[in-house]
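so ive been stuck on this for like two days lol. basically i have the seq below and the ligand is flavin mononucleotide, smiles is in there too. i just want the complex predicted, nothing fancy, no docking runs or whatever. if the output looks off dont worry ill sanity check it later, just need somthing to start from for the group meeting slides
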Amino acid sequence: MAVLRVLGIMGSPRPGGNTDLLLDAALKGAEGQGARVEKVMVDRLNISPCREHYGCLDDGLCVIRDDMDALYPRLLESDCVLVASPIFFYGLTAQLKALIDRCQALWARKHVLKQSWPGAGRKGAFLGVGASTGGQLFDGSITTVRYFFKTIGVEYSGELLVRGVDRQGDVLRHPSALPDAFELGARLARRDPAGGLTETGPTGQSRGGKESMTHHLEKSARALETALQMEAEGKKFYLEAAARGGTPVLVKFFQRLAADEDQHAARAREIYDAIKASQGWPEKETTFKHATTLKSVLDEAFEDMDADPAKPSEAELEAFKNAMAMEDRSYTFDKARLEEAGSTHEKSFYKALTGEERMHYLALLDSYEYLSNPQGWFSRTERWGLDG
Ligand SMILES: Cc1cc2nc3c(=O)[nH]c(=O)nc-3n(C[C@H](O)[C@H](O)[C@H](O)COP(=O)(O)O)c2cc1C
């Protein structure tokens, strides 16, 4: 089967901002399903607004020569298109709107020149972010994106609308946005009918209604696929952080975290295989064993630290911040699964997993505080409440 091509259109002028982070998560989700993803940073392209020359009415080609030349074929050939934009004055950004307006040439091909292009069954989704929480915040943009998709022959198959994020990186602190984006990207790329391409709300909650047992198990299996993907990414991240070397305690700490991710993945894989073999969710409690607790790894290392510990590098501190964000994303994803869990054993799995993710997060936070401010850290008497 041909590899699915997913095109992500990043409409914000702020690289590394909320839209960018959200789109990256969705593209990662798609990538995890084996799709080939490409991200286009619209603000970096030279795209003129439409000038109404109307040359396109004659031959379907825009008379303006700029970066749209290279983009038209990608818009028509991609199997999935993800449009991501912040809300600027209740609409899409001007950069993205210029790109969309230039698709009038494609509209002319379709509606005036009656041309067609291959691509039935192509899917698209909209990712929007905005600072306010108003109910109508995304209405105008949704209409524009829907009409854009219709013009390029893509079905509007899902959306993720995140309110209340404003400053750069606010979306990292949102309780569910990134896992939801990851899941949306994964669903978009999966294409199985049960996976569907339904609307995704910002809360990640299911949309209610009674589910059949089979449907619930299918959903559980898909959630486990995402969880497995997250665990694999976590392990890779920690092993890479450990392989970079540096402060020995941190290397040991990251190796320990990687081993934990392995343990979680092994249990998730066991359950996944049982569901796939039509055995249902295994009737077994989930607990995770710890050869050494995270606390003892750190205690051992910090015990002899004097008032002048080796200063960690910026890269090490950055790795801690990224690791915390990663643990938080997994926690949010698995917490939502815990709330939706059907059986006691499913609950037990997600309870154990979220417990671990919280523990990792707190251990990382504690270490980060220690590394960035050892004096302040030592002055606190009570350090941990994690492993008890
Ligand atoms: C020019 C401009 C206009 C904006 N207009 C709105 C608006 O109408 N409603 C809103 O909720 N937020 C508005 N915002 C805030 C952005 O949507 C918000 O900061 C968003 O998180 C930025 O996403 P980014 O980090 O991906 O660029 C505006 C921001 C700018 C710079």
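Confidence is low (pLDDT under 50) at residues 192-211, 380-388. Residues 5-210 form a domain with the Rossmann fold fold (CATH 3.40.50.360).
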